[in-house]
Every structure is written in structure tokens, then in C-alpha cells.
């Protein structure tokens, strides 16, 4: 038997795995000190959270047959690509940005749940790659919808609704932390 290790690069705007990152942790919330990037002077935004899901896997083979696999899935925050405008950033805006990171973690959990359902077969690598592509598309769509529906946190009622819903969803997928 031989082990074949394949690590997939992070899917976040062409980032490399060498980027400094913070792994999501429910007991450690983001602070403004985590936002180390240079603000985009052409943006109307007060802050930007860069986050993404890393995914890696290894397959165990016997001859030419895949007989087992293991995976790693993590939600990451990228300090050097995340920024805020110091004189406009407050606790409310930081909570909005934290929820972006929480959404990333939610989709990491959903990804882990989908991977758990996979059965070892000769197409498992392709299946995992498709799941990864699908989950990245879904998390990006949800991030955009979150900003649209909350008007980038300006709609406080909708912001609260999103906070409650994402916490419910994280709890629903708690077995996939």
C-alpha cells in the first residue's frame, strides 16, 4: 500500500497557502487589530473581511485502487487582506465583519458534513473537488446576499436577523466543528 497526499490550494482570489491566516475559533472573536491590510481608498466600505475555506485530502491506495481517504477543512481569516478605516470602525461594524467569518465557518461545516457522506470509490477525488467548488460558490453567494440584505450592516433589523440565523445554523452543524 502507498499513501498519495494531495493538498489543494486555498480557493480565495488566487491566494497561496503561505498567506498568514487565522483559523476560525468560536472562543476567539476578531478584533480590529486583526485587520492589517491597507484600506481601499476607492471603496465606500468601512471594512473588508477576507476569509476562505482551505481544503486538503489524502487518499490511501492499494495497487491502483483507492481504499480510504482523509480530509482537512478549515475556515480562515486573512489579516493582510482584511482592512478597516480606523476613524469609522466601531463595535457594530466589527460584529458585521465577524459574521462574514462565521458564515465562512458555517460553510466549512457544511462541507465537512457533505464529505462525511462520501463513500470510498475510484471517483472520490473528483467528488471532493466538485463538492469544494460547489461549497465555495455557495459561501460566496451567501456572503454577497448577506451584504445586500443588510446593506453592508446599515439595515440594523436585517443585521440582527442574519446574526440569529447564522448562529442557529452553526448550532445545527455543531457536530462538524
Automatic annotation (TrEMBL):
Protein name, entry field: DUF922 domain-containing protein
Pfam name, any one: DUF922
Amino acid at each position: 500500500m502507498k499513501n498519495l497526499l494531495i493538498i489543494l490550494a486555498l480557493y480565495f482570489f488566487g491566494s497561496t497557502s503561505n498567506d498568514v491566516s487565522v483559523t476560525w475559533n468560536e472562543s476567539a472573536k476578531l478584533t480590529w487589530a486583526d485587520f492589517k491590510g491597507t484600506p481601499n481608498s476607492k471603496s465606500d466600505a468601512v471594512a473588508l473581511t477576507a476569509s476562505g475555506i482551505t481544503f486538503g485530502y489524502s487518499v490511501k491506495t492499494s495497487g491502483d485502487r483507492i481504499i480510504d481517504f482523509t480530509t482537512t477543512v478549515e475556515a480562515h481569516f486573512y489579516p493582510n487582506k482584511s482592512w478597516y478605516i480606523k476613524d469609522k470602525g466601531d463595535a457594530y461594524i466589527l460584529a458585521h465583519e465577524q459574521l462574514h467569518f462565521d458564515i465562512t465557518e458555517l460553510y466549512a461545516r457544511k462541507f465537512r458534513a457533505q464529505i462525511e457522506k462520501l463513500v470510498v470509490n475510484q471517483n472520490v477525488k473528483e467528488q471532493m473537488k466538485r463538492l469544494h467548488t460547489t461549497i465555495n460558490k455557495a459561501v460566496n453567494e451567501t456572503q454577497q446576499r448577506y451584504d445586500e440584505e443588510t446593506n453592508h450592516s446599515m439595515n440594523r433589523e436585517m443585521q440582527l436577523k442574519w446574526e440569529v440565523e447564522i448562529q442557529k445554523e452553526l448550532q445545527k452543524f455543531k457536530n462538524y466543528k
